[in-house]
Sequence to fold (416 residues):
Amino acid sequence: MERINRPRGTADLLPRQARDWQKLEQIAREVCAHFHVQEIRTPMFEHTELFLRGVGDGTDIVEKEMYTFLDKGGRSLTLRPEGTAPVARAVLENKLYAEMLPLKLSYIAPMFRYERPGVGRLRQHHQFGVEMVGSLSPAAEVEMIALIMSFYGAIGAKELTVALNSVGCASCRSQYREALLDYLELRLTGMCEDCNRRAKKNPLRILDCKNSCCQAALLGAPSIQDCLCEECQTHFAGVVQGLEALGLPCEIDARLVRGIDYYTRTVFEVMTASRSTVAAGGRYNSLYAELGEIELPAVGFGIGLERALLLLEEQGAPALGGEDRVDLYLIPLGDRAEIAVLPLLQELRQAGLVVERDFAGKGLKSALKRADRLQATYALIAGDEELAAGKLLVKELATGTQERMTLEELLYRIEG
Fold:
């Protein structure tokens, strides 16, 4: 019978890797707690319309990458490709906006996109994201970027830079759209099929194209920075000043637009020294009105956790999860000991110790070999003689020294 393998674009997290993931998620939650961010969990799938209206039907996500299916009732559902629209839906549906604003909400969740798998890019990937809802202040963007940099600092990443741009408001973009289309009028024929399609739906997305021919055609393109209205200019200057006040390295990139339609004003990416993006986000003041006819300004970001771990590996940082640790390895000898050690196991684990036991029953020599392989600190040998005396034979595996002691004496030794 043919073996069944995992689907393309997915990954198994094996125990050693899972320890790194657990630590990464722990750090993300700790950093969020310091910024007074509360966790939210949304369903893994949503009505497809949420992403058509929220993300934009002209985006690559909607046109090419969504996992969409009909349920048994004939309703169109989509596996979550990104986290912002589901959070917005949850805020509106549960009327969280009636609480004290701004809201700061975080999530750590799997996302699903049908795209070509690559290094750090999976069809099922995991994202840590934060959404701040209810503030128009440029300080909100500064808060989100500071949180990103605090997270990466906490996991040990180095040499990161923030790339910034403003895509303006609807008025700014309308003016820039005309200027960009005028520039592209005689150049589109030499550009890729996607860019020709984007020119009809959302010309700003052309700036995000990675095709070398398209990048060359854009070398003399007008800058959206020249089309910003006074209010958008003031807002963007406030973001830059806030980052400078925090000493966070940033650079203005007039080509930065991001690939989702809901962004307004500030967009940003956190880049490595090799120009790889390890976090991205921005402001989206129109999304809530689009989804629920309630105007709520918001700003947020997403971090791909696979990419975060890959960055640590590239920078030679130590593994986050550390080594597998066993404090005590308990070896029952004989049928009576098999039952007698069960309450002892329970008590040791309740004392906060990592305790493994021998299940093989192949004798003391074999059990001690396994205790060594597990790098246990102590082996606890419970035979008839020890149990009759209410004691255990405690062997320190690093030195080979051993002595009989009661449970109380053992705990005192370990804790002392």
Remarks:
- The chain is about 40% helix and 20% strand.
